[in-house]
Amino acid sequence: MKFLHLEEQLSREEIKKLQLVRLKSAVARAKKSPFYAKKLKGIEPEDLKSIEDVKLLPFTTKEDLREHYPYGFLTVPKSEFVRLHASSGTTGSPTAILYTENDLNTWADLMARCLFMVGVRKEDVFQNMSGYGLFTGGLGIHYGAERLGCLTIPAGAGNSKRQIKLLKDFAVSVVHIIPSYALHLSTVFEGLGINPKDFNLRIFLIGAEPHTDETRRRIEEIYGVKAFNSYGLSEMNGPGVAFECEYQNGMHIWEDAFLAEIVDPVDLTTLPEGEVGELIMTTLAREGMPLIRYRTKDLTRFLPGECPCGRSHVRIDRITGRADDMIILKGVNIYPMQVEKVLMSMKEVGQNYLIELYKEGHLDQMRVKVEIKDEYFVEDMRVLKALQSKIAKNLREEILITPRVELVEHNSLPKSQGKAIRVIDLRN
Amino acid sequence: MKFLHLEEQLSREEIKKLQLVRLKSAVARAKKSPFYAKKLKGIEPEDLKSIEDVKLLPFTTKEDLREHYPYGFLTVPKSEFVRLHASSGTTGSPTAILYTENDLNTWADLMARCLFMVGVRKEDVFQNMSGYGLFTGGLGIHYGAERLGCLTIPAGAGNSKRQIKLLKDFAVSVVHIIPSYALHLSTVFEGLGINPKDFNLRIFLIGAEPHTDETRRRIEEIYGVKAFNSYGLSEMNGPGVAFECEYQNGMHIWEDAFLAEIVDPVDLTTLPEGEVGELIMTTLAREGMPLIRYRTKDLTRFLPGECPCGRSHVRIDRITGRADDMIILKGVNIYPMQVEKVLMSMKEVGQNYLIELYKEGHLDQMRVKVEIKDEYFVEDMRVLKALQSKIAKNLREEILITPRVELVEHNSLPKSQGKAIRVIDLRN
Ligand SMILES: [Zn+2]
Ligand SMILES: [Zn+2]
C-alpha cells in the first residue's frame, strides 16, 4: 500500500474541482457563524465560479479571532463541540479553536496520512515528546498515531533522562520532537555516554518551530534517522497541515482539506508561483469553526514541479520565518533563520546559539552567542579569535551586517525544552 | 435516561454470573503471557466453579510488574498495542501498562459511565486540570469526556491564573482536579478577589490522592459544587475504576470490568464484609494485559447495604491510606489521612498542612505544620497558644500520640500543583 487515503492520489484537475466544491460549502457553512454572517454579507457560494475566485473573499486575521473570542466563529451550538485548544497567555486576549467530533476525526485522519507518508506503520513504536494539554502538538499527533495503530508513548516534553530510558526500553522507532530539543537531547545522550545510533530509531518528525535544512541534516547525522519537516498551526487544527514525503523536497499541503495561497504580506495581492510571501489558508473540511483566508503570518513559497512520490498536492518550502519575526537592524531586514542557516553549516558550532539585540549609545547592535564544540574550544586565543572572525564573516555574507560574535562553551546557553528562544531584544 | 450502559443495571446475581464467565476468560487469556504462563501453570479456567474460587489464583504484585517489565505480561504481539502509560522514575525499575485499541475503548466507556453517573452530560463544558502525558489521569478522563460528548478543555496541571480564565471564559461546569490543588486554587481565587461561586461550576471530580470527607465538604463549600470522589490506578487502566454516584455514599466499582476483593494485608486472607483491608483487583475486561489478583496496596472496605441509585455494583469506602503510607511512631500505627481528617474539620485551619517526622535524640517525633486562616491568625499569643493546644489535643484523640503543632500563616507552606506531599520523613 503506497497511499493511506484515496485523496492522496488526486490529480491537479481533480484537486481543483474538489476544492471548488468544498470552498463553496465552507463559505455557506461559515455564514452560519456570527463573525462571517457579517463579514461575508453579500457573498454567496454560487459567486465562486472557479477556485481562483477565492480572491473575492475577505481575509481573516488573528485579531479577528481575538475580538470574537470565544464563540464568534462557531457554526453550530456549543454543545456540539467536544474539544477546545487555546493559545496561552493569561493576560491579553487569547484565541481558541473548537472542534466537533467530525473535526477531530478529520484531523486524526490527516495526521495519520502524514505519518504514513513518511513511512510510519502500525508496527512502529512512537514516542511523542511534544507537550500535551492546550498545545495542539501533543494531542494532535497522538490521535493520528493511535489511528494508524502505532504503540504510542505520550511522553510529553522535557525530562530528558526518562525520554532516553523510554526510547531504549521500548525500542522506539519514531519520535516527534522539536528540532531545538533534538539538538539539546543529543548533549544529554553525550553526557550519558550513549550513542543514539545504537537505538532502534528510524524516523524523526520535526517541526513546530522554524529551522533550517542544516539543522535537519545535523539531527539526521546525530541520531542516524530520517528527519521530516512538518507544518501546522492551531488555527488549522494543529499539526497535520503539511508534511514532507520520503523525498524531503518540500511539504505537501493536504489540498483536499486546506486551500493555500501565497500573498504579498504588505499589499495582500497573490504572488506568482515560486515567490516567497505570506501563507494564507482556508479550511475546506472543518465543520464547527471554518476559517476563510486566514493570514498565517508564516513566510514560504510554493515549490514548482512534480514530486516523484506521485502526490500532486502542492508543496511549500520550509518556513523562512514569520512576518512578525523579522528583525530590522540598521535598516536591513534579517530573519533569525538566516543566522541559523550559517551557524548550523559550520562544523565547529555546537547545538545552541542566541541572538541578542541591544543598544550601543543610539545605535542598534546585534550580538550572536555561539556554543562551540568541545574539540574546537581550545586554549589558544589566536585560534578562537580566528574562529570568531570566520563566523562573523560568514554571517555578514548572509545578513549583510557584521554582528558581534561571542564564543561560549558547549552546553552553556539556556536549554530549551519547548520552543527555543533564539532572539532576545534588549533594546527597550 | 438514568444509566449510560446496560451493565449498570445488573442485579447482584447477574453480576456474579458475568464475573465468573469473564474471570475464566481472563485466566485463559492471561496464560498467553510469559508471566502468567508460568504463574498460572496447573490452573485451568474450568477449575473456577464459582466466583469465590478466585481465591485459588495467585496474587500479582507491583514487584512482578517491575521484574517482567516491559513485555512480560502481554498476551498479544507488541504491534497490537496502541498506547503505553508508564510510572515515572528515571532510576529504579519502572512499570508500564500497554493498551490495545479495544482496551482504550473499554476504558473510555467505563470513564464515560462514571461521568454520566455523577450527572455530567454532553452539554457540559469539562476542564481537565490533570497532567497529561504518561500519567493516566490526563488522557484517561479526557477520552471519557470526549466519548460522552462534553466540550473538553485539556488544560493540564498548574498555571492557576490561566485555569481560572478558562473556567470563566467558557462557563465551565465540570472540573477534574486533585483535591489538594482545589484547595490551593481557592487561595488564588481569593488573591484575585474572585468568588468561584459566581462561575458556572456544578460538578468537581476529585481523586488521585487520598483525602477525607472533610476536605470534600470544604471544596464543595468553597466552589458551590458537588464534589465526587473517584478511584483508579494505572495498573487497572487509570481513572474509571470506581466512582461515587449522586448519593456520595461510597464508590461503586464497575464489577463487570473488575473483580474486587478485600484481604488482610499481612496474611492475605479474605476479610469479612465491612472490615478494612487491602484492595485486590482483577481485570475482567482487559484484552492485552490482564492482571490477576493485583495487590493495590490501597486500604479500604466494602460498604454494606443497597444504594438508592439502583446500581448494585459494590461500593468501597474512601481510601484510608496505602499500606505503604503507614507511619509507625513510638509503636503506634498512624495514617496521614487521620491527621487530615482532624485538621480539615476545624474551622480555624486553612487549606494546607505538612507532617514532618524527625529524631530528637533517639526518639522519633512528629511535627505538624498547620496553615491558619487569616482571621484566626491574631497577634494575641495566648489565643494562638490555645489554638495550638486544641489542635494537638484533637490530633491526640485520633492518632493516640501528641504531635508537636506549629501554626503557620495562610499560604506559607509549599504549594502543590500535582499530588500533594503531606509527609516528610527527616529521620534518616
Ligand atoms: Zn512527495
Ligand atoms: Zn449509587
Describe the structure.
2 copies of one chain form a homodimer. Chain A is an alpha/beta fold. Chain A folds into 2 domains: 1-323, 3-Layer(aba) Sandwich (Rossmann fold), CATH 3.40.50.12780; 327-425, GMP Synthetase, Chain A, domain 3. The first copy, chain A, has 10 helices and 21 strands. Chain A has helices at residues 12-30, 34-39, 62-67, 101-117, 136-148, 160-169, 179-192, 213-223, 336-344, 381-399; strands at 81-86, 96-100, 125-128, 151-153, 174-176, 203-206, 226-233, 238-244, 251-253, 258-263, 277-283, 294-300, 302-303, 315-316, 321-322, 327-329, 332-334, 349-360, 363-372, 404-409, 423-425. A 9-stranded mixed β-sheet of chain A has the order 4-3-5-6-7-8-9-14-13. A 4-stranded antiparallel β-sheet of chain A has the order 10-11-12-15. In chain A, α4 (101-117) crosses α5 and α7 packs parallel to α8. The longest helix of chain A has 19 residues, at 12-30. Chain A is globular. The A-B interface holds A 69-70, 78-79, 81-86, 88-90, 94, 96, 98, 101, 104, 122-123, 125, 132-134, 138-139, 146, 149-156, 159, 161-162, 165-166, 169-170 and B 69-70, 78-79, 81-86, 88-90, 94, 96, 98, 101, 104, 122-123, 125, 132-134, 138-139, 146, 149-156, 159, 161-162, 165-166, 169-170. The complex binds zinc ion (2 copies). Chains A, B: It comes from Desulfonauticus submarinus. Chains A, B: Monomer. Chains A, B: It catalyses: 2-phenylacetate + ATP + CoA = phenylacetyl-CoA + AMP + diphosphate. Chains A, B: One of its GO terms (molecular function) is phenylacetate-CoA ligase activity. Chains A, B: Catalyzes the activation of phenylacetic acid (PA) to phenylacetyl-CoA (PA-CoA).
